Amino acid sequence: xxxxxxxxxxxxxxxxxxxxxxxxxxxxxxxxxxxxxxxxxxxxxxxxxxxxxxxxxxxxxxxxxxxxxxxxxxxxxxxxxxxxxxxxxxxxxxxxxxxxxxxxxxxxxxxxxxxxxxxxxxxxxxxxxxxxxxxxxxxxxxxxxxxxx
Length: 149
Description:
alpha/beta; Rossmann fold; six-stranded mixed sheet; globular
């Protein structure tokens, strides 16, 4: 079991390391450019080329049904759900077979509304309760995978 982080815009890297420490799980930080991240023996950094989907491709090629993926990227989440991985958004909301279709549809709708000028704002700011919800959801996901083994 590993925890993959789509690291370019992930606000919960330190929280992932806290849970990984508790379970002695490797954490793979994947990004398109070098970035500072938690210095910890369980954390490995992977910098892929600067192609827009390179980090997504790298994660999707390696993830298994025994892994957890942390991402806000809906297309990446869909690819990982198809492989059976546990997916968490940084706000702690999980994506799975039951919710990914709606997430893809909402992403497409928001993209269209931004393109037409109907929506000009981005997502809600990251809140303290998002961090707390994320920690709980990550712990729950790790425990669920351990029970499946």
